[in-house]
């Protein structure tokens, strides 16, 4: 921000640029994953987003930065649908929310490790971390291809399709269950977006820490969020093992997470950075606890054969949410209206849980003899 000369409002617009292309591309990315398979689809996507990440470190102005972040959004739009589809192919229904929690470890550990690059940025410039991390994706692709070919899926995607079901992949975008999931995801993911993008700026703006001082704190909430993902997965699995139908079990877990997330409303009362970090961590904990169940629901409802495009509808909704909410958060933050930011992302979680009460489980489908 200092190097290229922009404020928090423009930072919010930058997130919106990423989110617009993320939202616009994700349904197409989901179709590619369903049509060509995970291995080819995700290899293309990671190559694209790694190139965009490297390009970020080479820009000379705000416009170039916006272009590279937009390109990053196109590639990253395939990430969440891909790991959701992998969960459907490898895991039993009761295990899928826990699988989403395991997948989330990668996202959370990445966010926790990122502050280690602050020292590199302060000594070598902010561009170097983008160049380094962008190259990591090119190392990941061959590793993934070797591992995925050695470990065969538990299920074939076609096993979950009803006999005689000739609907196109895009037909499910009109179904009421998926529409309700999209609405619920928009209402739920505000706190996830806030703490994924704004924790450092919150600590510098509200607790008046220096950038170097934030490195002692900002790695904690993403790590705590991992525990939240496993808590949410464990809750739904516990109820499923007690013969609760998977969709109903996930709704219960989301209600628990929504009430837990209300503790975020205490954040404006935090007296120092330690208390603020603790409350942000709890907020992130419950954000992930509910999120892993929301993202497992499309697999429960549509199976692996259509899970790519079903989950991509949720990621599209998340992209639209970030597009709208990020400039608002930036504007409120520039005007020191931090309490309003907290309420903006906290209260909708209860509405999200209420919306999901309208989702109905599908008729049983064949899962094969495993």
Explain what the structure shows.
This protein is an all-alpha fold and 370 residues long. It has one domain (8-152, 168-358): Growth Hormone, Chain: A. It has helices at residues 8-36, 38-56, 62-76, 79-90, 96-113, 116-124, 127-150, 176-188, 190-197, 199-205, 211-214, 220-241, 246-261, 273-334, 338-346, 348-355. The longest helix has 62 residues, at 273-334.
Topology diagram in text:
Elements: H1 8-36, H2 38-56, H3 62-76, H4 79-90, H5 96-113, H6 116-124, H7 127-150, H8 176-188, H9 190-197, H10 199-205, H11 211-214, H12 220-241, H13 246-261, H14 273-334, H15 338-346, H16 348-355
Helix pairs in contact: 1-2, 1-3, 1-14, 2-3, 2-4, 2-7, 4-5, 4-14, 5-12, 5-14, 8-14, 8-16, 9-14, 10-14, 12-13, 12-14, 13-14, 13-16
User: What's the CATH superfamily, by name?
Assistant: MFS general substrate transporter like domains
In which range does the helix fraction lie? over 70%
Radius of gyration: 20 Å
In DSSP terms, counting alpha (H) and pi (I) runs of 4 or more, how many helices?
16
- Portion in strands: under 5%
What's the number of extended β-strand segments? Answer: 0
Would you kindly provide a brief summary of this structure?
The protein is mainly alpha-helical and 370 residues long. It is 74% helix and 0% strand. It is built from 16 helices and no strands.
């Amino acid at each position: 921000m200092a190097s290229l000369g922009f404020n928090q409002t423009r930072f919010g617009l930058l997130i919106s640029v990423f989110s617009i292309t993320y939202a616009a591309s994700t349904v197409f990315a989901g179709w590619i994953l369903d049509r060509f398979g995970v291995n080819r689809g995700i290899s293309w996507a990671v190559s694209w987003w790694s190139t965009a990440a490297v390009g970020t470190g080479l820009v000379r102005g705000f416009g170039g930065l916006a272009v590279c972040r937009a390109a990053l959004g196109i590639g990253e739009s395939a990430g969440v649908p891909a790991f959701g589809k992998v969960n459907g192919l490898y895991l039993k229904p009761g295990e899928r929310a826990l699988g989403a929690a395991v997948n989330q470890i990668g996202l959370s550990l990445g966010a926790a490790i990122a502050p280690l690059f602050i020292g590199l940025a302060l000594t070598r410039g902010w561009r170097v971390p983008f160049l380094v991390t962008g190259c990591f994706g090119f190392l990941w692709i061959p590793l993934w291809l070797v591992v995925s070919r050695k470990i065969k899926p538990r299920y074939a995607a076609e096993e979950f399709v009803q006999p005689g079901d000739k609907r196109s992949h895009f037909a499910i975008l009109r179904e009421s269950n998926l529409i309700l999931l999209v609405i619920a995801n928009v209402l739920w993911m505000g706190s996830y977006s806030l703490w994924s993008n704004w924790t450092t700026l919150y600590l510098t703006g509200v607790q008046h820490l220096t950038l170097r001082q934030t490195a002692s704190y900002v790695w904690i909430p993403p790590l705590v969020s991992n525990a939240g993902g496993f808590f949410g997965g464990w809750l739904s699995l516990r109820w499923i093992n007690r013969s609760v139908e998977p969709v109903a079990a996930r709704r219960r877990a989301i209600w628990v997470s929504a009430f837990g997330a209300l503790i975020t409303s205490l954040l404006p009362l935090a007296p120092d950075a330690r208390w603020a970090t603790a409350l942000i961590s709890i907020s992130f904990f419950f954000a992930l606890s509910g999120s892993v169940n929301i993202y497992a629901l499309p697999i429960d409802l549509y199976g692996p054969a259509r899970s790519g495009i079903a989950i991509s509808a949720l990621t599209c909704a998340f992209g639209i949410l970030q597009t709208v909410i990020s400039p608002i958060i930036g504007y409120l933050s520039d005007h020191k209206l931090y309490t309003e930011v907290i309420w903006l992302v906290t209260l909708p979680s209860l509405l999200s849980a209420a919306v999901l009460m309208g989702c109905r489980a599908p008729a049983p489908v064949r899962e094969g003899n495993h």
